[in-house]
């Protein structure tokens, strides 16, 4: 269970209305129930529910069962997709260890805004489901050119590109796996020529290929994260 509160020996933890509702109405728990909680900072804790009502509740921290581990997963910059597939990208990217999720607006993208609250809730649920001890930040959507203008050049940007002078992903990641990294995946219509030209002039950009087939945009993001996990993940 994700709790946005400090966790520590003997600490009481307030449960807001949403969390209390989830414990009462969905998990059907009562005071005295024990469960595992994390907050992204203090590791995983066994907590006991001490009070539970419609409007909120409280739990007490009993003991720490897992220490917090550093979470240096690669960022995923992705063009938001139609028909619930943006939510799906967030869910799977959290499972695959992405360190930050950045919806990215590109010229051929067909989604102009994202529901940030919903995406953040998806990230929390996915972290809970996969027993990850942190919830990656989901940032609000930004145009690609603005992201590139403010980019920290110390972070490599692997750009998934199905054609052109792309290095195979495995070779590219193996050679640079000690560096902070991000992946950029285009929309279903692909990047346009001006975007590709701009990307190709940037010193921190490495175009990478994921094989000879044209993958759907969501598949490309998952494949990139899975390759990174296999080569550089913990
Ligand atoms: N019609 C587009 C085109 O030909 O440019 C296809 C875009 S593809 C459906 C969506 C995105 O997935 C691409 O912009 C790229 O970032 C990524 N992608 C798809 N297949 C890939 C591959 N084999 N290697 C690397 N990236 C790929």
UniProtKB/TrEMBL annotation:
Keywords: Cytoplasm, Methyltransferase, rRNA processing, S-adenosyl-L-methionine, Transferase
First-level EC class: transferase
Domain spans labelled Ribosomal RNA small subunit methyltransferase E PUA-like: 15-55
Subcellular location: Cytoplasm
EC annotation from Swiss-Prot or TrEMBL: 2.1.1.193
Catalysed reaction equations from the record: uridine(1498) in 16S rRNA + S-adenosyl-L-methionine = N(3)-methyluridine(1498) in 16S rRNA + S-adenosyl-L-homocysteine + H(+)
One GO location term (cellular component): cytoplasm
Gene Ontology biological process terms, A to Z: rRNA base methylation
SUPFAM superfamilies hit by this protein: alpha/beta knot, PUA domain-like
Ribosomal RNA small subunit methyltransferase E methyltransferase domain ranges (all copies): 76-229
Any one GO MF annotation of this record: rRNA (uridine-N3-)-methyltransferase activity
Family: Belongs to the RNA methyltransferase RsmE family.
Function: Specifically methylates the N3 position of the uracil ring of uridine 1498 (m3U1498) in 16S rRNA. Acts on the fully assembled 30S ribosomal subunit.
Protein name: Ribosomal RNA small subunit methyltransferase E
Originating species: Aerophototrophica crusticola
């Amino acid at each position: 269970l994700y709790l946005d509160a400090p966790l520590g020996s003997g600490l009481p933890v307030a449960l807001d209305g949403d969390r209390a509702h989830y414990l009462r109405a969905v998990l059907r728990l009562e005071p005295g129930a024990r469960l595992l909680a994390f907050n992204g900072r203090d590791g995983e804790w066994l907590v006991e529910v001490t009070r539970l009502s419609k409007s909120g509740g409280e739990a007490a921290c009993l003991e720490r069962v897992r220490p917090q581990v550093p979470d240096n997963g690669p960022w995923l910059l992705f063009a938001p997709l139609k028909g619930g597939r943006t939510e799906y990208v967030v869910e799977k990217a959290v499972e695959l260890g992405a360190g930050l999720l950045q919806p990215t607006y590109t010229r051929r993208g067909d989604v102009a805004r994202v529901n940030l609250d919903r995406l953040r809730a998806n990230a929390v649920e996915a972290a809970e489901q996969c027993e990850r001890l942190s919830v990656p930040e989901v940032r609000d959507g930004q145009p690609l050119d603005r992201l590139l203008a403010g980019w920290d050049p110390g972070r490599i940007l692997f750009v998934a590109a199905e054609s052109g002078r792309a290095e195979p992903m495995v070779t590219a990641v193996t050679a640079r796996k000690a560096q902070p990294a991000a992946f950029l995946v285009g929309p279903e219509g692909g990047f346009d020529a001006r975007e590709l030209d701009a990307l190709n002039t940037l010193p921190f950009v490495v175009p990478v290929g994921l094989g000879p087939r044209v993958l759907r945009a969501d598949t490309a993001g998952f494949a990139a994260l899975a390759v990174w996990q296999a080569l550089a993940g913990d």
